[in-house]
Amino acid sequence: MEQKINLPHEHSDTLSQQHIFEAMPSEEAIQVVSHALGQLGDPSRLRIFWLLCHTEECVADIAAYVKMSSPAVSHHLRLLKSAGLVVSRRDGKEMLYQAADSRLAGELHQIIERIAEISCPDSGMA
């Protein structure tokens, strides 16, 4: 059903205003993207996410790569997982982490590399 919004001030063409209103993302979509972007607003999580876009690693190795303690890395990984950016799997006694195979994670990975003007290392993972 088409919903008409009555604006208190009409500054432009009413038809284009209605078109913009109809194209607005859902609250759920905005929340998902906002949460993911919020998590990547932290430099440590951004670095961990970028690393996991290229390799699958355990907490101890991630901690060594990013020069942080394992508990700190675990905290950041929990937040990245809650945003749907990172997934984990058990391999024996170890938990391994990598970037989620999702459109959101893939697009954010590409945006990070474009903004930072870097390219993916040859790793077999995109």
Please provide a written account of the structure.
The mean pLDDT is 87. The chain has 6 helices and 3 strands; from the N terminus they run αααβααββα. Strands 1-3-2 form a 3-stranded antiparallel sheet. The chain has 126 residues and is mainly alpha-helical. Strand 2 and strand 3 (94-99) form a beta hairpin.
- The coarse overall form would be elongated
Q: H/E series, N to C?
A: HHHEHHEEH
Strand order of the largest sheet: 1-3-2
Approximately how much beta-strand content do the residues carry?
Answer: 5-15%
Q: Counting H and I runs of at least 4 residues, what is the number of helices?
A: 6
Number of strands: 3
Mean pLDDT: 87
Radius of gyration: 19 Å
Q: Secondary-structure blueprint of this entry?
A:
Elements: H1 14-23, H2 27-40, H3 43-52, E1 57-58, H4 59-66, H5 70-82, E2 86-91, E3 94-99, H6 103-116
Antiparallel strand pairs: 1-3, 2-3
Helix pairs in contact: 3-5, 4-5
Main traits of this protein?
single chain, 126 residues, mainly alpha, 3-stranded antiparallel β-sheet
What is this entry, summarized?
The protein is mainly alpha-helical and 126 residues long. It contains 6 helices and 3 strands; from the N terminus they run αααβααββα. It starts with 13 loop residues before the first helix and ends in a 10-residue tail after the last helix.
